[in-house]
Design goal:
alpha+beta; single chain; 3-stranded antiparallel β-sheet; 10 helices; 18% strand; 10 strands; binds magnesium ion; kinase; binds adenosine-5'-diphosphate
């Protein structure tokens, strides 16, 4: 019993009708779930117990639930509605993000205008700041883990997948090598990092939002890691020459190798680029 459920606690199938698959990850599968009493459509992430190999994996699932409950309440975090457990799986029932992954929206768009990128990116920084204030590092920030409540301009951005998230104390250092190759910070590869690693990942995401391409790439994981550690960021290739200096400066301050010089969430929220694009946005409304 991973989530400390009592035998009489409601089972997933008592409350929900399970529908089509929405996504798939390392440990489980995400499907649509319709609440029997009122027809509410939600999403359920089912984590197969057979894939939880060690105590650490079990702890990660417990952590994912604890973190989702803690960071809930921010408008850009996916809300956890209920949890269930049976012999085979642990189930996390969440609000449905019918717009899918931000990843797919980027692929469709190629890249975003500066204004659109700034609008989306501000929300990302705000939600990461919210997590940091509560002592949570996500450790897997990437466009696949930012979902949209619907397609179209009214779609709200929601951060999800706290499966690799951890609680951190002030100045605490971590050494687990986790995350996704394109987005991983150099200090994570060096196995000595703190919550600043999330800011690096945001820098990678911003670079992709603006250009459609990852800043560090290669054919193999090793090659990608080599590029991350080298840390050279290309601003010469299209569309970078056409983009504003403020946008480039924002990316540079996040993709800063020296953790003590890397921009914090608060610094980015006050950065000229976000402020300027934010004002321009208000005027157009
Ligand atoms: P994993 O830890 O396996 O990556 P995620 O929580 O990221 O699991 O979920 C995997 C995928 O399932 C997501 O990238 C997304 O496509 C889809 N998904 C997850 N949660 C939801 C949700 N609440 N609404 C819609 N789709 C979701
Ligand atoms: Mg994921």
């Amino acid at each position: 019993n991973i989530l400390g459920k009592a035998p009489g606690d409601p089972k997933l199938d008592d409350i929900y009708t399970i529908g089509k698959q929405l996504g798939k990850g390392a440990f489980g599968i995400v499907r649509q779930a319709t609440k029997k009493v009122n027809g509410d459509v939600l999403a359920v992430k089912s984590i197969s117990k057979s894939k939880l190999m060690c105590k650490e994996d079990v702890k990660d699932v417990q952590g994912e639930v604890a973190i989702m409950n803690l960071v809930a309440g921010h408008q850009n975090v996916v809300t956890l509605k209920s949890t269930h457990e049976d012999k085979e799986s642990v189930h996390l029932v969440m609000e449905l993000c019918a717009g899918g992954e931000l990843f797919d929206t980027i692929v469709e768009a190629g890249n975003f205008t500066e204004k659109k990128a700034a609008q989306v990116f501000r929300k990302m920084v705000e939600v990461v700041h919210h997590c940091q204030e509560l002592g949570v590092m996500h450790r897997d920030l990437k466009p696949e883990n930012f979902l949209l409540t619907s397609k179209g301009p009214e779609g709200e951005l929601k951060l999800t997948d706290f499966g690799l998230g951890v609680f951190f104390k002030h100045n605490e250092r971590f050494k687990d090598l986790v995350g996704s190759p394109y987005y991983v910070a150099p200090e994570v590869l060096r196995k000595n990092y703190g919550h600043e690693a999330d800011m690096w990942s945001l820098g990678v995401i911003l670079y992709i939002l603006l250009s459609g391409l990852p800043p560090f790439w290669g054919d193999t994981e090793e090659q990608i890691f080599k590029m991350v550690l080298r840390g050279h960021v290309d601003f010469k290739t299209e569309p970078w020459p056409k983009l504003s200096d403020a946008a480039k400066d924002c990316v540079k301050k996040l993709l800063e190798q020296d953790v003590s010089k890397r921009a914090t969430a608060v610094q980015i929220l006050k950065h000229d680029w976000l402020v300027k694009e934010g004002i321009a946005l208000d005027v157009s409304l």
